[in-house]
UniProtKB/TrEMBL annotation, chain A:
The chain crosses the membrane at residues 12-35, 69-89, 101-120, 126-149, 194-218, 230-250. This is ABC transmembrane type-1 domain-containing protein. The lineage of its organism: unclassified sequences, metagenomes, ecological metagenomes. One of its GO terms (biological process) is transmembrane transport. The keyword Cell membrane applies. PANTHER family: ABC TRANSPORTER PERMEASE PROTEIN, ALKANE SULFONATE ABC TRANSPORTER-RELATED, MEMBRANE SUBUNIT.
From TrEMBL, chain B:
Residues 1-29 are annotated as: Disordered. It comes from marine sediment metagenome. It holds the Pfam family ABC_tran. This is ABC transporter domain-containing protein. One of its GO terms (molecular function) is ATP hydrolysis activity. Residues 33-266 form the ABC transporter domain. Keywords: ATP-binding, Nucleotide-binding, Transport. Transmembrane segments: none annotated. PROSITE patterns: ABC_TRANSPORTER_1, ABC_TRANSPORTER_2.
């Protein structure tokens, strides 16, 4: 006997939020029409959809620019972050001396230093990338360092008993053990890279052929093209969700055989 | 009482690769491990071990038995070279101790928990010591097969540790210890976390392997019954300060089985060991108050 759809967990997991979303959009559209809301104040979902279609080429260009900066910053943050973590675990002294500066990087609002970076770095793309890296790197550093340090002390003893080199210890023990922490860092960091790219562009306010979604939002605001503003916002949100989903998928792929976070819960 | 365990050095030339056949449980084999006057004092002044003297001979099954804090695990870790001593010396095969990784002097350690790498399959976990020694080739694979077979884990090569029961994880841990064909096996309360049935089964299996392969085992436990059942010698320790207070030979033949558990001899030895433990704690009590 086939089980009814309503009892299928996967179906419910997807359908329930969908229903909420559809009702919300429906309510929004009805409200906009019922109160005769002008579209330069609050456009309805249909207007926004229309804008997504008619302005698609502009939006796509901007999206590609923002995506480029986000991914570039994310990759740099991962590389530099992991390198920093590997450096930190070499000695307690190095970590003690440098970690406060990593925290400093984290707590300084990027909006406050973005203007400086934009002055210092000539190329806009790189200036924005640097801002995004500053935001995205901290979760990678702190998570990976924690992971590399969280080694089963007995396993470590065993490695010591066999007079293992530090390199072997790192490759065979510390790095595999740090992976769950590292992937946790990736999940947070990918979203931050996107936020960094958008925020930096808001501050920079650069236009022209290299304009990203943030500039498009600014520009649409000046021109009262509010549906396009919403369309750009939708794209940013979708990008963020896609990046996060990608990280979850990557982490599940890498850890599914052994780590609790990736195991399927049995009922 | 501790003096009974101190044995003068024999002037024989140490040849670790030659392994004369020694009757399991024999007490006149060559000394594998000699702990002499070992003190261990922590930075905060806690005396973890005071004047520990102990000689473990080839083919012996020695249990270190005592209450928590008596330094039995500390002593075992020192034997494994996993901790410094404040003073005293440790000799392995009658040589000053600095030869952990050397060929022919191999020792293996089995921890309280299985201590497997959760990200690696059983086979990879078992081969770890060989990997760390950069061994490979068909001979290595045979060693791994043999170790897995001995602990009854053949066919579980590709399982991940989480897929195994606690007892099976412990078996994998033992296979990993055996794969280097150690002269000396150090076990730190290895089955403490397991249920009694699994524990008894594993104890019997370890005994069989010990007898069959002519191993030397030092086994830390806090169970009087386990110590008496398994050992050819029970070394009783007391806490505050951690020290050796008695050394009791369990003069019973191997193999031992369920019949031994219900025999009057078994009960007699258990009583003797328990009394030694009680005396030890009575000695420790006043000092505890002073501290």
């Amino acid at each position: 006997m086939k089980e009814p759809l309503i009892q299928n967990e996967t179906f419910v997991k997807i359908a329930a939020p969908m229903v909420v979303g559809v009702f919300f959009l429906l309510f929004w559209q009805i409200a906009v029409v019922a109160f005769e809301m002008p579209k330069y104040i609050l456009p309805g979902p249909i207007e926004i959809m229309k804008s997504l279609v008619t302005d698609w080429s502009t939006l796509l260009n901007a999206l590609m620019m923002t995506l480029k900066i986000t991914l570039l910053a994310f990759v740099i943050a991962v590389v530099l972050g992991v390198a920093a973590s590997l450096l930190f675990i070499q000695s307690k002294w190095i970590e003690l001396s440098l970690f406060p500066y990593a925290v400093l990087l984290q707590v300084t609002p990027v909006v406050a230093i973005a203007p400086l970076i934009i002055i210092w770095v000539d190329d806009t793309t790189w200036a924005l990338t640097v801002c995004a890296v500053i935001i995205a790197i901290f979760p990678i550093i702190s998570n990976t360092t924690l992971g590399l340090r969280s080694v089963d002390p007995n396993l470590l003893s065993m490695f010591r008993m066999y007079r293992t080199s530090r390199w072997q210890e790192l490759v065979r023990l510390r790095i595999p053990g740090a992976l769950p922490y590292f992937f946790g860092g990736l999940r947070i960091s990918c979203g931050l890279a996107l936020i960094g790219a958008v925020v930096a562009e808001f501050v920079a306010g650069t236009g022209g052929s290299k304009a990203g979604l943030a500039y498009l939002i600014l520009q649409s605001g000046y021109n009262l093209q509010i549906p396009r503003m919403f369309a750009a916002l939708v794209l940013i949100t979708l990008t963020g969700i896609a990046l996060f989903a990608l990280m979850v998928w990557l982490s599940d792929r890498a850890l599914r055989n052994w780590h609790e976070s990736a195991l399927e819960v049995e009922h | 009482m501790t003096s009974s365990s101190v044995t003068p050095l024999k002037p024989s030339t140490p040849d670790p690769t030659a392994e004369p056949t020694v009757q399991a449980g024999s007490t006149n084999g060559r000394p594998v491990l000699q702990v002499e006057g070992v003190n261990k004092i922590y930075a905060n002044g806690t005396v973890a071990l005071k004047g520990a003297d102990l000689t473990v001979r080839q083919g012996e099954f020695v249990s270190l038995l005592g209450p928590s804090g008596c330094g039995k695990s500390t002593l075992l870790r020192i034997m494994a070279g996993l901790g410094d001593v404040t003073s005293g010396s440790i000799k392995f095969w009658e040589q000053e101790y600095n030869v952990v990784g050397d060929k022919g002097r191999k020792m293996a350690f089995v921890f309280q928990n299985a201590t497997l790498m959760p990200w690696a399959r059983v086979r990879k976990n078992v081969r770890l010591p060989l990997d760390l020694e950069h061994q490979s080739g068909p001979e290595t694979e045979q060693k791994i097969d043999k170790a897995l077979e001995m602990v009854g884990l053949s066919g579980f090569d590709n399982s991940f540790p989480r897929e195994l029961s606690g007892g099976m994880q412990m078996r994998a841990s033992i296979a990993r210890a055996m794969v280097t064909e150690p002269n000396l096996l150090l076990m730190d309360e290895p089955f403490g976390a397991l249920d009694e049935m699994t524990r008894n089964k594993l104890n019997d299996d370890v005994l069989k392997l010990w007898q069959k392969n002519g191993w030397t085992i030092v086994f830390v436990t806090h169970s009087v019954y386990e110590a008496v059942y398994l050992s050819s010698r029970v070394v009783v320790m007391a806490a505050r300060p951690g020290r050796i207070v008695d050394d009791i030979k369990i003069d019973q033949p191997f193999p031992r089985n369920a019949d031994f558990r219900v025999s009057t001899e078994f009960a007699g030895y258990c009583r003797q060991v328990s009394q030694a433990l009680e005396r030890a704690s009575a000695m420790g009590a006043p000092q505890e108050k002073k501290a």
